[in-house]
Amino acid sequence: MNFRNYVLSCAVALVAAACESPTEVSIPQFPDGGLLRQGTALTRGQLYLFEGMYRVDQGSDIFGPELAVRTSKGTVSLLTDKNNGFSVLGSACLGDGRVVVEGYWQYPTQLEAGLVRLFVDPPELAASLCAGEAPTPDISFSLHGTYGEDNDFPTHPLSLAWTHELKPWRGRFFNTAHHGACEGTDHCGASPNSLETLRLAERVGSNVAEIDVRITRDSVPVLFHDPGLSSSLVRGTFCNGAVADLSAAELLGSCEYLYGEKIPTLEQALHMLVNETEYEGAYLDMKVPGAVLPSARLVLKLNEEIKAQNDSNDDPSDDRKFTAAIAITTDAVRSAWHDAKAQLEKEGSPIPPCLFEYDPNLVISEGCTAWGPTWTEGTQADSVQMLRDQGAITIFWTINQSDFMKDFLETGKPNGIITGRASTLFYLYQKMGTVPPAPGMTE
Amino acid sequence: MKHVTRLPLAAFGIASSLAHLALAAPADSPGAAPATAPAGAPAQASSPAAVPAPSPPTSPAATPTPAAAAPTAPPSEIAPAPATSAPPTTDTGAAPPASAAPLEKAKPSSLELSLSFGPSVLWGEAANPEFDPSVTRFGAYGAFGIGYRSSYFIDPFLEVGYGSLATGEVTLPNDPAWGTGGTLEQHLGVWTISPGLTAELWRFRPRFGMGLAVVVQGYHFGGEDHSSTQLPLLAQFGLGFVAYDSPRVRLDIEARQVVIGGADVHFTTIDVLLRADAIYFGGQ
After folding, report:
1. In a domain, A182, yes or no
2. Per-domain residue ranges for chain B?
3. Which residues of A touch B237 (CB under 8 A)?
4. Same structural domain for residues A267 and A376?
5. Residue in A320, A254, A236, A279 with CA at minimum distance from that of residue A416
6. Are residues A189 and A291 in the same domain?
7. A178 and A144 assigned to the same domain
8. CA angle, corner A90, sides to A87 and A94, nearest 5?
9. Pick from A145, A164, A183: which residue ends a domain?
10. SS3 category, B247
11. Alpha helices in A312-356 (DSSP H)
12. Are residues A122 and A244 in the same domain?
């Protein structure tokens, strides 16, 4: 190749490299809504039947030899550490007395996904569900059906046998979604920090949401990770500049996340988490000091709404329990937190919960109830226990590798881990985790 | 021969010099001697001025010695006549070795100023279609450039441009979380500063440049004007056609694509590019 052609080829290659391909996502769906459309959805109370550990008798090439199943509102989730896989399923009682559980499976870090259709066995259990009862599982309970690949109709046999109950995890172990269900490079079909990914994160194993909070020019806290409106996160013809330079209206009118989601305000996100999901808390990662006071006010407002809602409940067991904590991430944020506390005390307002990220010795003195260390400092089992003895919890950030998860679960014994691989963490916690005491409790 | 002015054109001369080195000496550059004799070329004695030119092939006694067997001569002493050069008209004539080769007219070199202007079209989608955004994607882009029009095929340039690329309008709903609704007016402009290279291939001029953009986003909402900026990298590539070519002035019609990946701004222009020599360095 002569120099002239070489130069021209380089130019073409550089321009081609600058072109970005759209994010590829394939989330299979049954045509016409599948069997779920023909049946009656199971109630939330009935779904607890499905929770447990299962042996995979057929279909282990996709799900591994064993998997964990958890449920949330309207969803049955199969969770495995094999390729961080998960399956998000709906359930319904059919007219013929069968109970179908169907949806899709996916490996989020790959482009592999497919359909799943399972039926409850034995038939007596299905009949019990269709009669509106909420039976408890035993080892006779199993799910039989098929799975497929891509949008192909599922034909490969899949058979799951319930073996035992899950370890306690609600209110004990905080599988914390790293700004959503998946990392930005994954193929979940939802953008980090969007409401859609927070909904999905619960379905793939999370019970706490870690979200990134920035502030707009007109002091509206919004969920956004980076300082700038990078094309790696957002799109829109008129979406440019820094988040802090735009007003909330300008941001709303000009930008959307990569999968078309709106950039949510913190207020919208907190309301969604409380009212639409069963999340137990939110870890509010303060990206800028200016976000601290407005976020603290929103948390207080939310707490008042939750209290009013709970006060109106006749049955205290229906009370909504949700804790949003302001995460103190840097010295600048810590200083802003001090100012915010002073301001709130001056106004006679309570102080919202806080989480201190970088120094375990300051957690208690800062009045925080949680510590959020980075995993790179090691498992720090002594500090975890020291804080636990004082009633504080520890949530490490951010572990996506299963080997590190195992190490931290076995050695550090934390109360939670932030991850973008919630299905793997859920499964591994069930396999090898130590059940922590409830927050505020000591062993 | 015209006098060639040597100016310290450091910024513009670097790429040209690199091209010069990489190309060694192009065949159409008569001032440069080839590093080795071309295959099949007549062997040359160590002192070409004192030795008659090789005899034509029709004379068996004068069959040229293969080049590989010829005594090595310094490059400057090797006659540049290629194997296909015309033979001397007589058996004994001592043809001048250099002037016998057919000469192509060399491209003169100059410091060139350029001005381009044309319509632009912006690619991409507006956000949040449910708010019924209205976008005008057609705008205009103009640029001023300075370049070194070298004797070789690659010409470096530096260009500064501005484009008013798009305007839009979106109706925002009233939302407790976002605030009072209303009409948000938007404008997208971009400043570009880009060094790069062009090349002349017959009458076509491919262009490639990489540089910096200043994306300027303007808003009008609730009676308030505001703008924000972003500083991403840009790449531009284009293809021009030299529609008019006089010794000192040239006029191109050019299609150009500007890709500002970091801001997700991609636009295309069809512009008229006027180029004129500011300093003429001459040429053969």
Report:
1. yes
2. 109-282
3. 11-12, 15
4. yes
5. A279
6. yes
7. no
8. 135
9. A164
10. coil
11. 331-347
12. no
CATH number at residue A287: 3.20.20.190
Q: How many CB pairs under 8 A join A and B?
A: 145
Pick the range with the lowest mean pLDDT from A179-183, B72-76, B177-181, B213-217: B72-76
CATH topology of domain B109-282: Porin (2.40.160)
- What's the token pair of residue B269? 């222009």
Residues A179 and A302 in one domain: yes
- Listed range (A16-20, A249-253, A266-270) with the worst mean pLDDT: A16-20
Residues A73 and A179 grouped into a single domain = no
Report phi then psi at B46, rounded to 5: -70, -20
Asked whether residue A147 is assigned to any structural domain, the reply reads yes
pLDDT beyond 70 at B68: no
Strands (E), A74-207: 75-79, 86-93, 99-107, 112-121, 142-147, 156-164, 174-178
Q: Residue B66 pLDDT more than 60?
A: no
pLDDT at position A316 is 87
Give A25's contacts (C-beta < 8 A, 6+ positions apart).
Answer: A187, A188, A189, A259
Total domains, chain A:
2
**ipTM value:** 0.79
- For B3-47, the pLDDT digits (tens) are 333 333 333 333 333 334 333 333 333 333 333 333 333 333 333
Which domain covers residue A147, as residue numbers? 31-164
CA angle B111, B115, B119 (to 5 degrees): 150
Chain B hits for A223, Cβ within 8 Å: none
Same domain, A207 and A66: no
Which residues, numbered 6 to 25 in chain A, qualify as contacts with chain B under a Cβ-Cβ cut-off of 8 Å?
A: 7-8, 11-12, 14-15, 18-20
Residues of A in contact with B182 (CB under 8 A): 249
Average pLDDT over residues B256-278: 94
Check B235 against A218: CB less than 8 A apart: no
Nearest-CA distance from A393 to chain B in Å?
Answer: 31
First to last CA, chain B: 7
> Which DSSP category does A314 fall into?
S
Tell me, yes or no, whether A336 lies in a domain: yes
**Cα distance from B260 to chain A (closest Cα, Å)?**
8
Which of A254, A261, A271 best probes binding to B when mutated, by most B CB atoms within 10 angstroms?
A254
Residues 6+ apart with CB under 8 A from A52: A68, A69, A137, A162, A163, A164, A165, A166
Boundary-marking domain end, from A129, A164, A199:
A164
Task: Report yes or no on A245 lying in a domain.
Answer: yes
Please tell me whether residues A156 and A182 are part of one structural domain: no
